[in-house]
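Please go through the sequence and fold tokens given here and tell me how the chain folds. Record follows.
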Amino acid sequence: MVVAMDQRTNVNGDARARKEEGFDPSAQPPFKIGDIRAAIPKHCWVKSPLRSMSYVVRDICAVAALAIAAVYIDSWFLWPLYWVAQGTLFWAIFVLGHDCGHGSFSDIPLLNSVVGHILHSFILVPYHGWRLSHRTHHQNHGHVENDESWVPLPEKLYKNLPHSTRMLRYTVPLPMLAYPIYLWYRSPGKEGSHFNPYSGLFAPSERKLIATSTSCWSVMLAILIYLSFLVGPVTVLKVYGVPYIIFVMWLDAVTYLHHHGHDEKLPWYRGKEWSYLRGGLTTIDRDYGIFNNIHHDIGTHVIHHLFPQIPHYHLVDATKAAKHVLGRYYREPKTSGAIPIHLVESLVASIKKDHYVSDTGDIVFYETDPDLYVYASVKSKIN
């Protein structure tokens, strides 16, 4: 109890310190979302189906070329390089399917749906199931209870979890393998499956969409099983399985870092304190070095969260134009070298300290469980 009170005091002290420095990120912004929208050039709202499709062709050709080269050369020296490269391209394909889900790929719903299903089914993602839950994430970003992606656990829920579950959630690299589990079971405290048309995630009118996406996912899984019999499970594991794991790690790391791990504590909201604008302003841009272009500027995330209908190839221009409106509510990402090693440090540091938020209060900040790793250390010594 004393420890919890000390932590609460530290959180309140952090808030006071921010105000003393002249800026409190949890304060009501002095601008409206319409002010940001007005600052973004008109060309940034224009979607080009041909340009969007060119990225699809680029990525599919790259995936095919890598797979053919890897099978032809078949060298254990080169396989690890292939796994990293191909897993990164799987992640790039996910981002394009993500754009289809937002409607930023084109203004043609049928094209978005067909391309989205092809791309996401290929990497074992149920297109509509994920699209609809991701829509919930955008509509409720920064809300403790209603957000969907990497939501902070309220203190009571956190402390009622088995210690083993807490360790799995907060021990690197295990959280970076969570995405397939999330698709089936969601996060602690939330129920439903992205594959079940009758899940509480979806409205009755959306059940046919979920059934379609689950069917497409099942076809892809059947193809992989068939290929395992045709060319052998080891070959399928090397060509597809390991890159899939790398893709999952990319997805979990990037989506986590867009909402966690900033040098200063950022707020989460409840009740009347939450608004679409305030929630969106807690997102973080990241510089991924050489990967920025490869994964379609997904690191330019603040403007994307506020205006998900903007195509990825206009996000950089839109962000530059909106910075003067956002002021200190926009946090310049740290410039990366070719490989974004600094983000690994941010990721690990955040997972080790950002454990839960208070059960009370409409503006809350992450708190740390000081006993989480101590317990594990003591238990290992006893054993």
User: Anything to note?
Assistant: The longest helix spans residues 49-73. The two ends are 28 Å apart (CA to CA). The longest strand covers residues 153-154. The chain has one domain: 45-380.
